[in-house]
Amino acid sequence: MQTNATTPEPHALADQGAPTTDPRPKLATSHLSKRYQLDVIRDLDLTVRPGAFYSILGPNGCGKTTLLRILAGLEAPTRGQVLIDGEAVDLTRRNDRRVGLVFQEPRLLPWRTVEDNVRLCLRPLGVPNKEARERTSYYLELVGLHGFAHYFPNRLSGGMQQRASIARALAVEPDVLLMDEPFSALDAQNRRIMQDETVKLWEETHKTILFVTHSISEAVRISTEIAVLTARPTSIRAVYEIGHQADSHALEADLLQMLSEEVDRQRALDVERSRAPTSA
Predict the structure, then answer these.
(1) pLDDT of residue 212
(2) Which of the chain's ends, N or C, has fewer CB atoms near its CB within 10 Å?
């Protein structure tokens, strides 16, 4: 159990694999593992409560994006399960579960309008045209892009393009919304604006959000829970629940210490691996 004696709230809830008080988390993984030429993720047990704004921190290259790709159904795990509402699902196959994904870059088609970019993701779902138009209009207004539906992406600022990508992800009305460092390319001012806008969207939609970031301050500012991943092969080292009276400065210092330890551990493992003899 990871504890924080100086700040009783927020606090580390549990080590990896500890039981949750919620019998049916919105999103969970069980012994999730992924191997390429080496193990990237090993026996990762994740538990995200319904309606949580759950952020993930970890060293560079530890497998955060790989985890999101598995949860989005873009890759299959080597072992283990992904569960939504307590049901094991294979997200690489067609199923009734929907997961929205917001990438680091907006990834909008430049030859299509903002409206078309959002509606395009609804076609494979068989959403009727009238409903697709209404849904597109609703989510564009929700993200503050009312009046920009017929603009092309190159006429929008970086922040506005990312808002369009968030509207696109929300338009499929996902069970879970995944966000992979969506504000990393923005300047400090726009990044803070988008943080506030995302929290507002979360409060209005009550979506369960899994948010990957490298920024400790960003995670502390917007999250209800923060998971810290270990060095590769990654698992969960600790989970912090953020309370309303949290001492954010103490928490940031605690998280920085923990991440620094994992970064040092990752470097040592990489050096050790580079020195290991290779088989012919």
Answers:
(1) 95
(2) C
